Structure formats: C-alpha cells, structure tokens
Amino acid sequence: MRMRPRSIRARDTLVAAVIAALVFGATAAGVDIAVRAEVRADHLRQTQVDARRVSGAVRDGSLEGAIPDLTRGRILAQVVEPGGRVTNATAAASGRPPVSRLWPSSNLRVRDFTECHGSWPDRECFVVEAIRVSTAADSVVVYASERLPSYLVNGLLEAVLAAGVLLLAGTVASITWRVVGRTLGPVEAIRAQLAEISATDLSRRVPEPPGEDEIAQLARTANATLDRLERAVGRQRQFASDASHELRSPLAGLRANLEDATAHPEDNDLREVIRSALHDTDRLESIVTDLLLLARIGTGGTAVQEPIDLSELAAAEIRRRASAREIATEFAPATMIRGVRMQLVRLLGNLLDNADRYADSSITVEVAGEDGLALLTVTDDGVGIAPADRERVFERFTRLDSARSRAAGGTGLGLAIAREIARAHGGTLRVEDHPSGARFALRLPLVPPGREKGRPKPDSPS
Ligand code: ADP
Fold it and tell me: Is the CATH number 3.40.50 carried by domain 201-296?
C-alpha cells in the first residue's frame, strides 16, 4: 500500500501536522507534569503544616475532642489508634474511616504519599501526610489529607491538553495546506499549459508569475525553452521545404525531358536526352550527398581527429586543384590543429570553389597562428558580400543575386556545410571586411606544441 501521498501539497501538510503534533504533544506532556507536580506540592505543604500542628497538640496533650479545622473542611485531619479507631477528627473527617491504612514505622515516622479510593467516575485521590506521634509501639498516627482536584483524577486535564494539541496541529495543517496550495498554484498552471502545448502549437507560452522567485524563474526558463524549440521547429520546417523545393526542380526537368523523349522519339536525340538526364541526376546526387553530410557533421561517430598542420593541408589542397585562377599563398609554419582531415579538406574545397566562382582574377589563401587560434583566410577580388548578407550566406540554400546570375551554381549548401564543420571542430567561420571582394576567415583552436598526440575526443565529429 502506498503510504506517501502523491501530491507535494498533501505531503507537506502531513509533515507539518506530524511535526506540530509532536512539538505541541511534548509541550502538553510537560505542562501536564508541571501542573500535577505543582498542585501536589501545594497540597503537601498544607497537609504537612496541619499534620504537624495536630501531632504537636497530641504530643503535648492539648488535643481533646474534635480537631479544630482552620481550613474550612479543605483538609481532613484524623488521629488514629493502632487498632484503626479514629479518636479525633476535624468536622469534615469525622465519621469517615481512616484516610489511609499506611502505618508509619517507628524509624520512619513521617510519610507523605498519594492515595486513591473508589473507581471512575467516583474515584477520589488524596495527598496524605502521616505522622507517627512517637516511637512507642502503641503510638497514634496523625493523618492530614487534602483531596486532589477532580481534573487531575478523572483525566480532564489530559483531555483538555490533547484537544488543544489536536486543535493546534489542525490549525498548522490547514495553514500549511493553504500556503502550499497558493505557492504551487502557478506551478500547476505552468504544468497544465505545458501539457496543452503540442508540437503543432508551439506558439503558446506558460503564464509567468511576477517577481524573481524560483517559480517565476521556472516559468521564464520554460518560455525561453519554448522560444528556442519553436525557432528550431520553424528552421526544420523551412529546411525540409527548401530541400524538397531544391530537389523538385531537377526532378521536374528530368521528368519533362524523359516524357518528351518518350512521346516524340523521332524529335529527340537519344544521346542528348541521356546526357541531360545524367546532368540532372548528378545535381540531385550532389544535393542529397550534401544534405546527408550536413546531417552527419557534429553528431559524433567514428571519424577520428588527428593532429593536422593547417598550412600543409591548405598547400596540398591548392596543389591538387586545377584552378583557373592564380592562387597567392602565405603560410605560417607549424599551425597544428586537431581535426578530421576529410572534413577540413571539404571545408577548404567549398571556400576555394566559391572563390574560383566569384573572383575576378586573383585568390589569396593565408594561414597564420594568433592568440591560440589557427587563422585560415580565403580572399578573392570579386563582387564581395554586402554586410547585410554576411550571416545569411551560411544558411542552407541561400544564393545571393550575384550567384543566381552565374550559370555554374552550387547546391547552396557549401557554406552551411563549411560552417558546420568549423563548429564541429570548436572553431568559427565568418565573412570579414575586406577592401575589395570577399574574405572568409576560419579560426580553429591551435594545439599547444608537444600535445599533438592527444587521444581523439569522444565527441569527435564524423
Ligand atoms: P553555392 O553552392 O551557391 O555556392 P554556398 O553556400 O557555397 O552555395 O554559398 C552561398 C551563397 O553565398 C552563394 O550562392 C553566393 O551568393 C554567396 N557567396 C559565397 N561565396 C562567395 C564569394 N566568394 N563571393 C561572393 N559571394 C559568395
């Protein structure tokens, strides 16, 4: 059976009630003990005074007949013989059997104790002082007794205290229930709203309570997360729609050509149709390959990072390419970084492809080390990129007007891929100011000398 209540509100209330019951219960027990001790001590003082007064009178023989009552019947005093006969008594105690059967011995002549008679509800208890007047065998005993108040005998005191404890614990529980309810109200509102927000309605936000407390911060964090989620879903949707759009154009061209060739074989040169179909297929293939690559970069995997000299890698890549334009280079020696060679070659290739495409006459590639970073720049002397477009060009399928007018368009994914690779290597890729043409700057963390042989990072990009 589940003993712990499910809700925080019920749990806190239960804990507060139990703690209150324990604390007030302990206090009530203390009060009970103190009241009993005080009343008994007070009664005992009175009975002792009276018993001494009477035993003195017995001893000096001045007591005759009834014992004078100075307490208006509150204290019952009796003088009892060894046989149990009451010889003298106060008016209130005469005619009653001896208050007690306890007979003090000659070596312990004075005794005080509490004695009770009868059963509930007629039970009564007395605080008794018994004094054996002398050590003689036939000495009489003087008893002085006072009845304890009924609330100490019939349990009324404990009942009242227990009721007080229950009342206080109940009050604490009810206050806790209300306070916790008020505190958790906004949390429930946030939960209910979050439950309603589905992937199709990410525009809704949870209510933000005023103030700076934990719940207000929770609401703000939840809303910030929803903001990011909404933007990410938006980007994802945009990307899916852009990707289908990009794939649809070559597919439509391919289909139109093939349908035309099938419908009018006599009007079409079959070789030309196949060549055009192959061209469209190539384009489709490169878009799909780029999309796959984009999806894979940075997701971790099997690709192993190795120490790479960025200057050497750039020099080798430039040597390998058959560029139509002259490429000026300036390489600082020993610019060691850690990375996935294939990906870095791809990044540099994309920058050089673009530079080749947009440069008027010359391209410059430089590699240097600065502030713990390796800096690789690819600069051309073409139309350049307006400051307003310098972030946009890294978005997927972005093509500026300058590119559309050029026949040899790429997939529109080249810079997106290049930036993803830079990020996956802990670096940055940006367009920077340059007096003429475009300048792309790649920054990657330099590996300190002597640390080149470090183990591959577990989250190394694929
Ligand atoms: P694409 O496959 O179209 O080259 P990229 O992602 O490589 O796609 O580039 C995106 C766009 O950025 C290009 O279409 C072009 O408009 C612009 N761009 C890229 N490199 C340069 C450059 N060196 N000079 C001018 N514009 C550039």
Answer: no
